[in-house]
Amino acid sequence: MKPFYLFLTAMLTSLLTTNTHAQTEYVLKSTDFKIDGSNYYIDQDKWLAIDPDKGHRNASATATVPAGNAEFTIELHTVGENDGRSSYEVLIGGRSVGIYTNPLSDETVETGPKFTKAWGGVSVNEGEIIEVRSHISYTTETTSTRGRWEKVVFSTREVDLGKEEAVAVAAKTFEQTGPDQVMSNGKDGDGSVAISGELKTWHAVTLTQNGPFAHEQDNKPNPFTDYSMYVTFAHESGNPVITVPGYFAGDGDAANSSAEFGNKWRAHLSPDKAGTWSYRVSFVEGEGAALNPAIDDYLSPFHGQNGYFEISNTDKKGADFRGKGRLEYVGGHYLRFAETGEFFLKAGPDAPETFLAYVDFDGTIAMKSKVPLKTWEPHAKDYKKGDPTWKNGKGKNIIGSLNYLASKGVNAFSFLTYNAGGDGDNIWPFVERDTKFHYDVSKLDQWGIVFAHAQAKGIYLHFKLQENELDDNRRGAGKVPSLIPESLDGGVLGPERKLYLREIIARYAHNLALNWNLGEENTQTYQEQNDMAEYILNMDPYDHNIVIHSFPSQQEQMYQALIGHQSVMTGTSLQNPWHKVHQQTLRWVEASKAAGKPWVVANDEQNPAQLGVPPDPGYKGFS
Q1: φ and ψ at 25, to 5 degrees?
Q2: Distance in angstroms (rounded) separating the CA atoms of residues 614 and 604
Q3: Angle 185-225-423 (CA atoms, 0-180°, nearest 5)?
Q4: To pair with 90 at 20 to 30 A between CA atoms, which of 10, 214, 238, 512?
């Protein structure tokens, strides 16, 4: 691949300098920027860099633009490193031009087209300030990048359409961070379908198709972005008809094999009626097909496969949610089970939020020495013979922890599914911490085993989809504008966020009792929150409860904008000082009802953190 890549780059460079009638180019070297107080130092007399040994992770330098009152193509020339990938943001006049994360280098340091990002059609006014921000990443506790960069180039050219297309191809080439296909000799499946699981109402029914062969780190096609699988399930009565998103499942046994490749593709149904059900597979291929419903390049022999299966009534009793049915929002303050009609009162721990930072999960590492992975060793004794495990007995302790919660009458627990850059910095669904378009299929299958056991024990799943430190490009409760490379699309509903939500929903939405929490102490804008919530609603075939968590001081501003029919939210996740819990819970119960759409209001977190809920006065001397 490397010789071809070099040839393609050379060819594109030739295209960019051919048939150019007028071209003006201005170069701002990194050393031309003001660096006093910037956290940068001058490296090798030619680059700006960050020194992590001084405790710096971010840096920002400014200069005056070299020209203005025109549109420019702006190129940021960064320095690749073999210690990891750095992230950058360019701003002009305070307006973000774009964010870029450079690829890994095979050399200690390396420059060139592979590490250059171009943005076209950027309006620049004379005298404006250009700002370049860098953010380093750690690959171990002691190894990090330095956020090096070389220069910014402003250019204006008269170009024909062909040249503009070449610029677009060049920019995409710069972002290529791996081979097109990791394994080129894999064999596609024949499109055949198998139905598995306990074929009963409310139980998980799994459709597995022998589909196109892929590796989880393939780029062309990327199995997560460039294939779109949906399965439409229909009951013989004509109602319901449920279309669920599918996903790449590796070899079909990745939880046990840790496989990174295979030709198995899956979709899950939790049927609500006994009788005959039909299925029909939709399978589309195309760049970005999973994120762009307009792409309709159907892929044979996978597309159009169809068949039937029989569902009988559930045999589950007691706490097991499969005996109660799916929890549904029914327009009131409490969720209701579809099978039994019972209302649900949630009661369970909101901590630890790093529940999934567990040593037995594949690809799970601790980025902070003071936040080690959990072993759940105290709950080894709570594991029961016959409970699920993976990889020859792994997972017993975390399964035991759920058994313990259930034994104490707890019916809910919460967890983050993404916290890179957050308090724990030890949970992400990707194959690597900063690789947002490639998912770890074995880790996600192992998570699924834990979630399924929780449901069987009658424990509700509180999905916290992101943490405050990484929900957008605003830092902390003060919402200070910052470059936060761990954030998905900087907070907006872009390809990273869409893919993340699609993968989580495709793999876990069939579970019966859960909510999607947009984020812990969320600071996204109203539009970003609403866009994300609407995407979840449209992607989730089961319409689970959608909630959001806020800083206590920001509840009025946030929730007033979301209650009623101003958003698709159906509830909220409250954080308040312990002595204000009743007052604030009642506040949003009544306010949401008055707005015409009663919310499911949950008191999930009490402050201060070191106390939580205090004992009653008089308990063991407490006053």
Answers
A1: -130, 135
A2: 15
A3: 110
A4: 10
585: left (phi over 0), alpha (psi -120 to 50) or beta: alpha
- Average pLDDT of the chain? 89
Q: Which run of H or of E encompasses 548?
A: none
pTM of the model: 0.75
164 versus 59: the higher-pLDDT residue is: 59
Residue matched to tokens 């880790």? 443
pLDDT tens figures, 193-231: 999 999 999 999 999 999 999 999 999 999 999 999 999
Q: Alpha helix locations (H) across 93-218? A: 161-174
For the chain, the residue count is 623
Give the pLDDT confidence of 39-85 residue by residue, as tens digits. Answer: 999 999 999 999 988 888 888 999 999 988 888 999 999 999 988 88
Backbone angles phi, psi at 582, to 5 degrees: -65, -45
Q: What is the H or E stretch that residue 284 is in? A: strand 275-285
Helix (H, G, I), strand (E, B) or coil at 34: strand
- Cα distances from 80 to residues 38, 105, 131, 282, 405, in angstroms, run 21, 5, 20, 40, 48
Cα–Cα distance, 21 to 608 (Å, whole number): 66
User: What does the buried/exposed string (b/e) look like for 436-448 if buried means 16 or more CB atoms within 10 Å of the residue's CB?
Assistant: bbbbbbbbbbbbb
User: How far is 84 from 108, CA to CA, in rounded Å?
Assistant: 10
Residue ranges with strand state E in 438-587: 460-464, 474-475, 480-481, 514-517, 545-547, 571-577
**Beta bridge partner(s), residue 605:** 575
Query: CA of 198: how far to CAs of 202, 230, 312, 462, 527, in Å?
Result: 10, 21, 9, 25, 42
Q: How confident is the model at residue 178 (pLDDT cuts 50, 70, 90)?
A: low
**Please, which pLDDT band fits residue 166 given cuts at 50, 70 and 90?**
very low
Q: What mean pLDDT comes out for the span 23-49? A: 92
How many other C-beta atoms lie within 10 A of the C-beta of residue 408?
8
Q: How far apart are CA 267 and CA 19, in angstroms?
A: 51
pLDDT band (50, 70, 90) for residue 141: low
